[in-house]
Each structure stands twice: as structure tokens, then as C-alpha cells.
Design a protein that fits this description.
This protein is of the alpha+beta class. The chain contains five helices and ten strands, in the order αβαββαβββαββαββ. Strand 2 and strand 3 form a beta hairpin.
Length: 242
């Protein structure tokens, strides 16, 4: 096959892959939204929940992003202050070659487990997703007869899989004993979500609560079906541990 033909095939494959998954999400009521709106929802931007840049004595914590560009020898941790959130997001994070963040807030300048303050959203990753397996995931999530796992608030197309965002009604304080319980809870729920019906990848990857994910709206891996991470709202009702 000549290079030109291969490029044509690859472009067509990308378009078909993207269309299939997005069609499934939209079939179940999902609507594509501005990625920044997801973070505004998770971290309650504008409500004074996270700390402003020069705010003192409030004992608040902040989300932490990490990004790195290909021409750099090292990456950067970025504190996401409330009054600088959109500016940092649009000017630095989405343009970086690699950028991740999770649904937790932290004290300090790095997202280490010992500095975690509150969990605002629990995020899951499922690889090996096809239009058929994504349809199976939604079918079980919407069907109360199964009660395997709850319906996520947001679904992100990350390139080779999906990221599921569950936003809590009230942020969960991360006391030492709760960190362990939430980790075990996430492991258990991952096993229910990632199965032979929802993924063609049989190797389930369990990730702790401190795991970061490619930033919504940011660049995907090279040669991924998508150039940037897309996100859809599928459920407007926040969740709780119960």
C-alpha cells in the first residue's frame, strides 16, 4: 500500500471510530460540552470552594495539574487557583503536548496522596472500547434491573478509550482511613465497569484515587483516533457514595 493510500485509510478509520462512539453517547442523551464547564462543575468555580491565588487563612485546597512539552526536559506542576483557573487552562494546559489532572484538591503544589484534601469527582478509565461495548455499558448503567454501576455525569473520549466522571454532591474529605476505603471502593467498581461486555481489552487496569487523567480538551496521544479529548454530559444529577 502506498503512503498516500495508507493516510487516506487512517483518516477514514479515525472519522468512523470517532463517529461511532459519539453517536452511541448521543443516542443515550449525551451532549458534547465545553471541557472547561466540566471543571467548573467539579471544582465549583465561582463559589469560593477552592483557593484564590492570594487568599490567605482560609484552609482551602486546590486542584493540581501537571504538564510537559516535547521540547522540555522536565514537566510543570500547576496550582489551579479559582481566579486563575480559566486563564491557566486556556493558555497553558490545553496547548501542552501532555497534560493531566484529576478530581481531587490538594494542599501544596503537587498531587501527592499525603497532600490530598477532598475528592470532588471519582474518575474511571476503560480501554478497548468499541461502539458495541460502549452501548453495552450505557445499557447496563441506564437499566436499574442490573444495578451494576451508576450512570456517570460525564464521558470523555480519550483517544483509545473512555474516561468516566462521577461528580459528588458534596466533596468527600480525604481522611487517612477514607483514602484506603475509597481506593478499595474504586477498585471494586472498576471490576464491575470493565468487563467482557464493555471492553475488548481483557486486562483490567485498576487505578487509585490519586490517578490523574489527560486533561479534558487537551491533546491526545500521537496516532490516537482523536486529536483532543472530547467530553459529553450524560447525567446532570451529582452522585454520592451511597
Amino acid at each position: 500500500m502506498v503512503p498516500g493510500s495508507f493516510l487516506f485509510f487512517y483518516v477514514c478509520f479515525r472519522e468512523v471510530f470517532i463517529t461511532m462512539l459519539s453517536d452511541v453517547i448521543e443516542r443515550y442523551g449525551g451532549k458534547k460540552i465545553d471541557p472547561l464547564d466540566v471543571y467548573k462543575d467539579i471544582f465549583r468555580i465561582g463559589e469560593g470552594f477552592i483557593q484564590k491565588e492570594y487568599e490567605k487563612g482560609s484552609f482551602k485546597a486546590n486542584p493540581i495539574a501537571y504538564y510537559k512539552n516535547e521540547n522540555e526536559d522536565h514537566g510543570h506542576f500547576r496550582i489551579m487557583f479559582e481566579d486563575k483557573f480559566e486563564e491557566i487552562y486556556r493558555n497553558e494546559l490545553v496547548n501542552a503536548d501532555f497534560c493531566v489532572m484529576n478530581g481531587l484538591t490538594y494542599f501544596g503544589a503537587k498531587y501527592t496522596s499525603d497532600r490530598a484534601s477532598k475528592m470532588c469527582a471519582m474518575i474511571f478509565d476503560i480501554d478497548g472500547v468499541t461502539d458495541n461495548s460502549l452501548n453495552n455499558f450505557f445499557y447496563a448503567a441506564f437499566n436499574k434491573e442490573f444495578d451494576y454501576y451508576p450512570l456517570p455525569n460525564y464521558v470523555a473520549l480519550s483517544g483509545h478509550g473512555i474516561h468516566l466522571y462521577y461528580v459528588f454532591e458534596e466533596p468527600v474529605p480525604l481522611f487517612p482511613n477514607l483514602k484506603l476505603q475509597l481506593k478499595e471502593f474504586k477498585y471494586s467498581l472498576t471490576e464491575k465497569m470493565w468487563n467482557k461486555n464493555t471492553s475488548v481489552d481483557e486486562k483490567v487496569q485498576k487505578q487509585g484515587i490519586n490517578q490523574p487523567f489527560r486533561i479534558l480538551g487537551g491533546k491526545c496521544k500521537k496516532n490516537a483516533p482523536l486529536d483532543r479529548v472530547e467530553v459529553y454530559r450524560v447525567n446532570q444529577h451529582p452522585v454520592n457514595i451511597e
